[in-house]
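Reopening this one. Same input as before:
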Amino acid sequence: MKILFIAFLLVSTNCFAEWEVALQAKSGTLTYVDEASKVKTGTIVRMLSMTDLKIADSHNGKTFKSIVYDAQYDCKAQQKKFTSVSAYSDNLSRGQMIAHSGAEPWQHIAVGSVDEGLWKIACGILKPR
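Same output, byte for byte:
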């Protein structure tokens, strides 16, 4: 029952997300954020983001074109951790959810990475483009 509720929460959150383009890689891959999803508790900000791939990737033999991240960003320690990650068969988190993973440990954010851009957006240092 708990797994079903979590799946429902991810799908329903995704349906109502107000995605706006945040970053674009040289490859054409777009990263979106949902500014309305931001929740701040002390120095920690939780925010939804989505990566929309130009070229499909695969996991366990199933292809996906987009990934939704529910992440926490530590604005003081410059770290992030994913609360959940879900991969979808179609762009813009449409289609079938083909993979899902739960919480991961805190990780340092590399300078110049997409994660750094998302950390800056979550922490209010940078606005989505």
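So the earlier flakiness isn't reproducible anymore. For the record, The two ends are 40 Å apart (CA to CA).
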